[in-house]
User: Which sequence fits this backbone?
C-alpha cells in the first residue's frame, strides 16, 4: 500500500485543521470502532463557504482527504460543494490505495453532513437538497 | 533536538548485521556452487550448510539432523501444522489445538484445515496476554493431532508457559509445535528440556536475511513434505539450497544466542524506560504483562489516536514503529491480538509497538520519549474524540 | 597448459553477478524495512518490490499483477500443479498431463497427486528429446485439470514446442503450465502469444540469488494458496518479503532478457565448439537435438566412463560440470531424462553436461577441450569395460 | 554427500591401477548397469599376496575403495586378505557417505572373487574357504 506524495504532504501539513466557533454547520461522520471519524465545521456567507475547518481521528488517508476536501470547497458556493465527489478528492490527491478509498467517501459525507446541518439550522429540510448521506459501507 | 533515525520495529524485521553480511558474501560471488554438486565448489557450499545446521541446532538444544531449512517462518508454520495433520490423518486425528493470538501463518493455516474438515480449538488468552497450560490441557482430545502455541507473541511480546505445555503434550502423547519466530535469540530455548516436538524460526528477526527460516522436527517424527522435488534437505525440502542465506542464519543465530542473558538485561532496562515514559501520557495502557515479555517489546495503547497516523507522524520524525492497527494489510479491523486481550476496537486502533534491539542506545530512547508525547499531542488536538475521552464520554 | 578455473555448470546454478549484488546490497543494510510497514523505510522496500515485479512481468510479456514472488522454482512448480488441481477439484477434474522428463519438482508433485487419487499421463519424448504436441493433445481428457510441460529441459537443453501446446490447451480449455526455469533469459518468452496460463521461473539460473523464484498466473485464474499466512503478495504468498532477493531477481531478469538474441549467437558458437570437440572422442554421442537446444547446453554420453568420477577428475583440473549420473542425490539410478531418451543405463551413467554462460570465453572452451580428452583417456584406461566396448562386446 | 580427504586422495591418485599379466587370480564384481565394476588381479607367492592391481569403472568411492583395498591386502597373507571387511576399508578411508557404502562391499567382494579364482585355478574348491560371494544388494 503506497500513499502518493500529495497524500503524505496533506497528512504532514494538513490544511484547515481546527474548529470554527459559532459554525453555521457542523457534520460528523464515521465511527471510532472502524477507526475513522471526521468532523467538519463550515461558515457560510451569501451561499459561499467562506471558512471550513476539520478535526479528524483516523489514518493518514483520513487526515489527507479531510484536508484536501476542505481545500476544495473553501471559497466555493454551496452548490459547488455539494457537487464535490469522493472521486474528485481522490484525484486531487493523486490517488489513494484501494483499501483507503472509503476515507474519501467519508470526506464527501462529512461535507454533506455539515451542509445538512447548515440547512437544518436555517429551518430548511436538507433531505430534498442533499439526500440521504448514508453510512460508510466499509464500517458496517 | 536534532532529528535522528531510529529503527524501533525489530519485531517486524531487522537489519542484516555486518557479521552476517560478511559471512554471506563469499557465497554470492566466489563460493556460489550448487550444494548438491560433486565438485569442490559444491562441496564447500554443502559444508557451509551443514555448519550452519549445527549452529541452528545448538542454539535450541537440538541435533543437526533435526533441523531443516525453509524459506521463512511462515513456511515452517504451515509445514508443522499441515505435515503433522497429514501424517496422523490415517489415525483419525482431526483436531487441532492452538490459541486465539497466534500469527496469521498459524491461524490461516488452521482455517484452511477447517475447510478440510478439521476441528480447531482456539484457546483464549488472559488479560495479561497469556495462554493457560490448563486450558490447553482441557482442550486436548483423543483425536487431537497437534497443539501449536507460540513461544512469544509478536505484538505484545508475552512469553508463554512453553515448558508446562510441552509437559502436558508429552504426557498426553500429542505433538507439540511452537512458533518461536519471535523468541529465538531473546529467550533460552531447549527443545529437549521443554518437550518441544516441532519448532519454527525465521532469520530476519535476528539480523539474518529475509526469506530464510528453519524448522526443528524431533527425531522419530517424519513430517510429510509440504513441497515436493529434489533431494535437498534429505528429501524433505526441495529447491537449490539458498547457501548465503543459510550461512547468514547460522551466523546470526550463533550471535543472537551467545549472550542472551546479558543482552536481555541491557535491552530490558531501555525497554522499561520506554514503557514508563510513554505511560506518563494520560489515557494510555501497557498491553501484555510487564515482566514476562520479550526484552525489546513495548506495546502501549494511546487513546484518542489512530495507529496509522501515529506511525506516519513518528516516521516524519525519523522513528520506525508499528501499531496494532492492521491498516496496511488491507483490512480495517484492528489486530486480533489486541482484541483477544479484551481491548475495544477504538483503543486497539490506537496502539503503538516499539520493538528495540541490542543496537538501540540510551540516546535513542531519550529521543523517542521526546517525540512520542509531541506527536500524540498533535494528533489528539486534531482528533474530534479527544475532548470526549477526557470527559469520560463513551465514544463507541 | 596452466590450470584454470572454469565454471561450466550454469544449468545447476549461477554466480550472482556484480550488477545483481550491487542492486541487492542496500536492501540488506540500509533499506532493510519490512515492505508491509507504513514508514518510509518500508515504503521504499515496497516500491523496490513493485519495480522488480514490473521487470519480471516485462521479461515474459505479462502484467505485473500476474506475477507473484516465491522462494524458488520448485515452490512455483508445486503451487502451479497443486493449486490448479485444488481449484478445479470441485469440477471433478482429476487428471494431469505432463511429460516423462520434467524436473523432479513437477514429477514428485505429480506422484503426490497420484496418492491423492489423481491420474497422471506422462507423455514420452522422442529420441531427440522433444515432447510432441500431438501426444499432449491426445492425452488431454474431459477431466484434465492441467497440462504441465517444461519449456526447456535442464539436462539436455531441448526446447519444447510450447506455443503449439499452448494453442492446443487453449482450444481444449485446459490450464497450461510451463516450467521455464531453464528457459528464462535464454529464449524469448511471451506468455500471451504462447497461450501460457502459468509459468515458473527461478532466480539462481540467471545470476540472481538462490532461494528466490516467481510464478506467473494469468489474470482470471485464482490459484488457491500453497502457503497460508500474512497478506503479502496480495494474500497469495505469505512471509516477510525477501526484498534483496526480489530486487536481485528483477535486476537479473532485466539483464538476462535485454539482449537474448545477441547473447544466444555468441554462446551458441562456443557451445558448438564444445560439442564438436568432445564428439571427436570415440564412442560418444550428443544427447538432445543439436539445434533446438539451450544455447549453453552441451550434453554428451561418453562410453566406458562413469559420470561421477569424470566430474571429480574434471574438478581436479578446475572444471565444474555435471553429469546424468544421479549419484549425489542418494539414488544409484542414472538420470530419468537420459533413460527417457532411450539410453542404456551404462551409457547414461557416463554422461557429461557442460552448461556455459555469457561469461564463458573462447579460452575457457579451449581449456575444456584440452582437459576432457585427457581425463576421459585416463578413466577409460582404468576401466575394465573399455576394451570390451572397443571390441563391440555387450557390457550389460 | 561429502567425501573425506582420504577418499579424494585415493581417487585422484589411485594406488595399484592396472592389470597383472598371468595373474594367479582375477575377480570381477558389480555391473555396468548399476554403474560400478571392479576387476581385481592378484599374484600369490607362498600364501602371500605379493602383487595386486585393479581396474574399476565407477564413481569416486568405487575407485577409492578399490585403491584402498589393494593397499590393505598387498603383502598380506591370503588369510589376512580374506579377513578384510568392507568396514575396514571404509574406516581406512575415514568413512564413506551412506549411499556409497556399497562400493566398499564391492571392494571386499572383488578380493574374494580374485581369491576364489586363485583357488579354482589351484584345483581347490573355493566355496568352503571363501563362501558365497553374493551380489551387491544395491544393484539388484
Ligand atoms: C527445469 C527446472 N525446474 C525447476 C528447478 C528448481 O528450481 P529451484 O532450485 O529454484 O527450486 C530447476 C533447477 O533446479 C530446473 O532446472
Ligand atoms: C510469531 C511469528 N510467526 C511467524 C512469522 C512469519 O515469519 P516470516 O516472515 O519469516 O514468514 C512472524 C513474522 O513475520 C512472527 O512474528
Assistant:
Amino acid at each position: 500500500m503506497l500513499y502518493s506524495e500529495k497524500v503524505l504532504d496533506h497528512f504532514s501539513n494538513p490544511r484547515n485543521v481546527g474548529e470554527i466557533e459559532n459554525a453555521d454547520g457542523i457534520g460528523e461522520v464515521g465511527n471510532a470502532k472502524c477507526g475513522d471519524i471526521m468532523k467538519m465545521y463550515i461558515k457560510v456567507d451569501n451561499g459561499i463557504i467562506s471558512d471550513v475547518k476539520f478535526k479528524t481521528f483516523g489514518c493518514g488517508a483520513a487526515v489527507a482527504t479531510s484536508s484536501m476536501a476542505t481545500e476544495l470547497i473553501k471559497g466555493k458556493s454551496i452548490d459547488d460543494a455539494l457537487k464535490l465527489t469522493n472521486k474528485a478528492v481522490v484525484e486531487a490527491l493523486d490517488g489513494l490505495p484501494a483499501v483507503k478509498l472509503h476515507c474519501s467517501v467519508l470526506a464527501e459525507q462529512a461535507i454533506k453532513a455539515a451542509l445538512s446541518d447548515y440547512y437544518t439550522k436555517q429551518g430548511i429540510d436538507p433531505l430534498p437538497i442533499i439526500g440521504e448521506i448514508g453510512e460508510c459501507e466499509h464500517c458496517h | 533536538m536534532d532529528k535522528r533515525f531510529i529503527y524501533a520495529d525489530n519485531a517486524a524485521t531487522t537489519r542484516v548485521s555486518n557479521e552476517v553480511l560478511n559471512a554471506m558474501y563469499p557465497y554470492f560471488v566466489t563460493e556460489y556452487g550448487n550444494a548438491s554438486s560433486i565438485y569442490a565448489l559444491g562441496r564447500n557450499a554443502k559444508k557451509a550448510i551443514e555448519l550452519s545446521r549445527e549452529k541452528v541446532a545448538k542454539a535450541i538444544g537440538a541435533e543437526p539432523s533435526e533441523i531443516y531449512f525453509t524459506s521463512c517462518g511462515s513456511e515452517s508454520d504451515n509445514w508443522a501444522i499441515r505435515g503433522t495433520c497429514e501424517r496422523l490423518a490415517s489415525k483419525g486425528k482431526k483436531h487441532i489445538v492452538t490459541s486465539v493470538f497466534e500469527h496469521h501463518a498459524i491461524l490461516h493455516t488452521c482455517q484452511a484445515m477447517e475447510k478440510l474438515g478439521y476441528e480447531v480449538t482456539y484457546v483464549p488468552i488472559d488479560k495479561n496476554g497469556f495462554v493457560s497450560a490448563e486450558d490447553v490441557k482441557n482442550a486436548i482430545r483423543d483425536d487431537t493431532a497437534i497443539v501449536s502455541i507460540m513461544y512469544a507473541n509478536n505484538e505484545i511480546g508475552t512469553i508463554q508457559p512453553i515448558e508446562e505445555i510441552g509437559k502436558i503434550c508429552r504426557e498426553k502423547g500429542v505433538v507439540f509445535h511452537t512458533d518461536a519466530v519471535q523468541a529465538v535469540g531473546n529467550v533460552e530455548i531447549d527443545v529437549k528440556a521443554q518437550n518441544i516436538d516441532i519448532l519454527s524460526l525465521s532469520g530476519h528477526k535476528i539480523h539474518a536475511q529475509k526469506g530464510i527460516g528453519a524448522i526443528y522436527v524431533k527425531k522419530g517424527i517424519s513430517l510429510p513434505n509440504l513441497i515436493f522435488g529434489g533431494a535437498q534437505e534429505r528429501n524433505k525440502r526441495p529447491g537449490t539450497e539458498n547457501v548465503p542465506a543459510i550461512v547468514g542464519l547460522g551466523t546470526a543465530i550463533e550471535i543472537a544466542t551467545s549472550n542472551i542473558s546479558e543482552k536481555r538485561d541491557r535491552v530490558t532496562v531501555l525497554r522499561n524506560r520506554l514503557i514508563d515514559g510513554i505511560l506518563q501520557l494520560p489515557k494510555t495502557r501497557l498491553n501484555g504483562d510487564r515482566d514476562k515479555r520479550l526484552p525489546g517489546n513495548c506495546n502501549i495503547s494511546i487513546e484518542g489516536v489512530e495507529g496509522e497516523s501515529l506511525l506516519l507522524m513518528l516516521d516524519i520524525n525519523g522513528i520506525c514503529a508499528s501499531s496494532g492497527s492492521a491498516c496496511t494489510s488491507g483490512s480495517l479491523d484492528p489486530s486480533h491480538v489486541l482484541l483477544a486481550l479484551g481491548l475495544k476496537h477504538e483503543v486497539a486502533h490506537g496502539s503503538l509497538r516499539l520493538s528495540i534491539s541490542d543496537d538501540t542506545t540510551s540516546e535513542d530512547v531519550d529521543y523517542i520519549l521526546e517525540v512520542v508525547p509531541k506527536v500524540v499531542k498533535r494528533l489528539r488536538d486534531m482528533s474530534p474524540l479527544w475532548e470526549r475521552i477526557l470527559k469520560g464520554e463513551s465514544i463507541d
